[in-house]
Amino acid sequence: MTVRLILLILSFGVAMTGIFYANRTTYAMIEEINRKRPKDRQVSYFWFSTAQKRKIYEEYRQLYREDKLGKRRRRAYAAIVIGLAASAMCLLLRFQ
Q1: In contact, 18 and 73? CB cutoff 8 Å
Q2: Domains held by the chain: number
Q3: Which of 31, 48, 77, 85 is 20 to 30 Å from the Cα of 24, by its Cα?
């Protein structure tokens, strides 16, 4: 195994970990929002679009001013971007 292949595997793993962590953070936000809402107005854990995610993030920010989960979500998105960029660099350097 070459160093480039090992770096590709590690960077792709960082990206996949970021995706998992961002998704888990979104579900934690929904859980926190549902604690404050009545039973008939709760947010579903399934089948939400990008617009619904934006509403979830805005409502979470309004309910919880410290925004701890929002900071974790942004860190997870940074890990996704860094991991995918590093993976792309490993792939592009291979073909030169």
Answers
A1: no
A2: 1
A3: 85
